[in-house]
Amino acid sequence: MASEAVVSFVVGKLGDLLIEEARLLYDVRDQFEWIVGELRRMQCFLKDADAKQKEDERVRNWVKEIRDVSYDAEDVIDTFILTQTARDSRRTRRRPFLCVKRYICIVSELTTRHRVAKKIQHIKMKIGDISSSLHTYGIRDINVGGQETRLNIRRRSLALYEEPELTGMQESMTTLKEQLINEEARRCVISIVGMGGSGKTTLAKKVCRDVKDNFDCHAFIYLSQQYGIRDVLIRIIECVMSLSPGEKENSNEEYLSKKLRDHLSEKRYLVVIDDIWTMQAWDELKLFLPDGLSKSRVMLTTRNKEVALHADNVINHHYIRLLNENESWELFHKKIFPKGVVCPLELMETGKKILAKCHGLPLAIVVLGGLLSRRDMTFIAWSKVLDSVTWHLAEDSNQCMEILALSYYDLPHYLKPCFLYLGLFPEDYEIKSKDLIRLWVAEGFIQQRGNEIMEDVAEDCLEELIGRSMIQVAHKRSNGSVSTCRIHDLLRDLSMSEARQVNFFGIYGDNDATSSSSSLRRVALHRNVDEYEIINRSAATLRSVLCFSNSSFFLSRLLNRGGKLLRVFHVAAVGRQENDLPNETGEAVHFRYLKVKRIRSLPSSVNNLSNLQAIILTNCVGTLPNAIWDLERLRHLYAYNWDIDGHPRLSNFRNLQTLCLHSGSWIEDGLYKLTNLRKLGISGNVDSHHRALSDASEKWSNLRSLSLVEYSSNIPPFVSFAHHQNLYKMRLVGLIKNLPKMPLDLAKLTLYGSQLQQNAIEILEKLPNLRILRLRWDSYCSEKMICSSGGFPRLESLELDCSSTRSLGVLKAVQGRRQAEHKWIPQKTRRHVKTT
């Protein structure tokens, strides 16, 4: 149900364009403002309509019409701005005495405006028809608030009566029991947090049954996203005390609330609230759950971490994990075979392939296990299930995919496109959070929030999706932030299914596409495919290309076929023998994000890309044109080992957050002006610029990551890094005569060729937050490494490059002193030491 998100995104984008591009819009501005106003009014109905369209074809068609007209409006304004920008660019290059060409240009401009005006008029008519249909088809009074859907009624029944199947949760069960029956006097609220289908309800029911005799009374209720307080009160009252038929029928909410509160205030009670979604829901429910000193307990199950922390920010809540491989097989086997029966060997391999699709999610395992228990125990029957796992999970009687989809429907509109975007990435792909955040910003999904930097707002969105159990953290950085994340396969299937309905993106690979539309907005290439199919079908509407295969994508072909509304280009290779971006790149004036590998140069026409926010060039060495300095909106420039042609103008880069370049005169010409820098990487002759670097470092109050690579000389003798409170990561390559003072919050330090002695260890071991220390090739020269008893208080990982006997001796000394666990890592001559 992404229609609300799509229209909200388009309305927000059109509103921004009306402000930013007012100079270009001229006399069509009023008409665009009318369109924006009408779409905003339609948004009032979209949330309820989204929830209802699955069961009502009228609503489904109405929502589709709004979505389509929103896309049409976006296309018209993007094309208009593209045309006007190109004309302005040509006008600046025209000689003033060429009157004939000027006359032709004026006629062309009038023709363009006339064509745009006709398109706008057509859109206005369509919007008028859509508005009329609200009344004609009886859609205006859509309201599902307080009504339970068929799925919620079924889930409430299952939550109360289904026999729990507990596998892999014994440790969790023990911990929860201890928390429920301990002697703490206050009313504690203990939450079980996890993604949909992870077994929260099963665990809560089992624990409740085991500890209920320790309480005077107990209640177990299923809440759902739509609930009525009066209904909830009646359900709890019926669990803990008697309620006459007359009271049930005639009593108001105030009477029931007082009756329940008075009864519970004298008891040691246990109330389990299953599937609570919002902090507001808890704020309503806690009013009739007395908070005395009777050792009472409330247990919540929720998909949202914030709800748990809001209900009780003192207690340790339980974050439920997915099952490991052995636990998954145990549960799978239980559902298929009677006790004592072993899975036939000929079915074992196919069964494990089916199980792998579940990725440890108990609900999916139970659904597929139950399905196979009703099938013939043959290789053919099981293979058919393997070939259609997603379909079976969507169509099963337990509504597996619908249960997962509830998390998506509950997302606020600004998070829905962010979640859908995750479906573009390949299955089991570890997504770099920095890439994802930059892509979200470039796509226009992130709303401005006061004066905050957009990337910070996007990072909060990422954390919120994690807190809502929609994304899994794969790895964290040394400072605790998210480094990489992944999405569970079933949630990825959900995102692709929803994206297909709203034409959000298409995925190509193995002759299979998730969308057959001829007007795709985004495409992802997961395997080597014929790019002509994509270009011929969707060039005119395409906004984003993400390529995760090694196949080349010819940007010039896409641009020449009309694909000039492109915003995002994230590919491995550009498909030209000379490995250069085409000069036509400058015609795609909406470009926001450019990430490519293995190219040698950018065209000078890049200066036309005034909206460009990120240039990321990897696995390549080349020269950047001087025109790069005209890109005043650039926020990220990642081009290690690239030189810059011409004289730098760093004063234009006030918004720059990431700068990774080969050293050059630009360091002397205003590096200190880049006060918003968060990541800085310089390679090459760093030492010769030590004075400029030292002066500039005083201005980098926002710096988080620093990399200096000096192969031929010394790392510059900076006075101190101690004042950099946000700097948590440093990588220094080159000889270091005197180790500079390090920031107290430094969490990760990597050194190459530094030739440190024992006195450097005495400095490093005093860093209170250092978690990762990597002493790579020739970085430590002493034959011993002596650490004091209180040294390295938070060190978690120590890597030493054992390329010499001397370094190996140091390694053994460290291992012996700390009694640390160690293991070989892929490089033949390097050991990885994990400290205890």
UniProtKB/TrEMBL annotation:
Biological processes, Gene Ontology terms: defense response to other organism
Residue ranges annotated for the NB-ARC domain, each copy included: 170-339
Q: What is this protein called?
A: Putative disease resistance protein
Q: Which residues form the Disease resistance N-terminal domain?
A: 6-92
Q: What keywords are annotated for this sequence in UniProt? A: Nucleotide-binding, Plant defense, Repeat
- Enumerate the Pfam families for this protein: LRR_14, NB-ARC, Rx_N, WHD_DRP
Indicate the segments forming the Disease resistance R13L4/SHOC-2-like LRR domain, all copies.
Answer: 542-805
InterPro entries, per database record = Apaf_helical, Disease_R_plants, LRR_dom_sf, LRR_R13L4/SHOC2-like, NB-ARC, P-loop_NTPase, RX-like_CC, Rx_N
Domain Disease resistance protein winged helix, by residue range, is: 424-494
Molecular functions per Gene Ontology: ADP binding
Source domain of life is Eukaryota
